Amino acid sequence: xxxxxxxxxxxxxxxxxxxxxxxxxxxxxxxxxxxxxxxxxxxxxxxxxxxxxxxxxxxxxxxxxxxxxxxxxxxxxxxxxxxxxxxxxxxxxxxxxxxxxxxxxxxxxxxxxxxxxxxxxxxxxxxxxxxxxxxxxxxxxxxxxxxxxxxxxxxxxxxxxxxxxxxxxxxxxxxxxxxxxxxxxxxxxxxxxxxxxxxxxxxxxxxxxxxxxxxxxx
Length: 218
Hints:
Layout: H1 7-22, E1 29-30, H2 31-38, H3 52-64, E2 68-70, E3 80-83, H4 85-89, H5 93-105, H6 110-116, H7 126-137, E4 144-146, E5 158-160, H8 173-181, H9 186-215
Antiparallel strand pairs: 1-3, 2-3, 4-5
Helix pairs in contact: 1-2, 1-3, 1-5, 2-9, 5-7, 6-9
């Protein structure tokens, strides 16, 4: 079955998958928490500024595609939302992590994917990364593909196909800056970036949980 997600639906789905794996204690997400997750300035490319109406519309679209919807939780007074990626595709943990990063950050090299999926799934080497990518590419219809290698780069990038195909893609200027300024160990910078993002995410989720708890007594 062919699926096409617009950019906001892709961001919402990626954010739900990410929080499911990295902050399971605060998942499923309330609408407010989901808006915050979509609008993070770290681990997102491009950075978006979505309001509740846009996220709610994307949730409706994902619900129609059986990819997300309200969670059936009886112990919450606030509607919370969850993804249904596993029910649709029966992914391995590695495939889920790969697709999540591709949804949130756009085309990636295998090296970038290995570093940026570390909080969700640890890959021992690039062979394991390539194996997960191949499984996504061999789906019917395919869920990922390799892009033509950019001149001056050593690795090809891979993109997800849930939002359709593109003929050409150029990395943002920041990618060139980071690769020049830190040629020795780009994976280490990505890991540090992920650790900082994780702490910020946890603080944001704690604030959301505290706000929702206080609402019960207002």
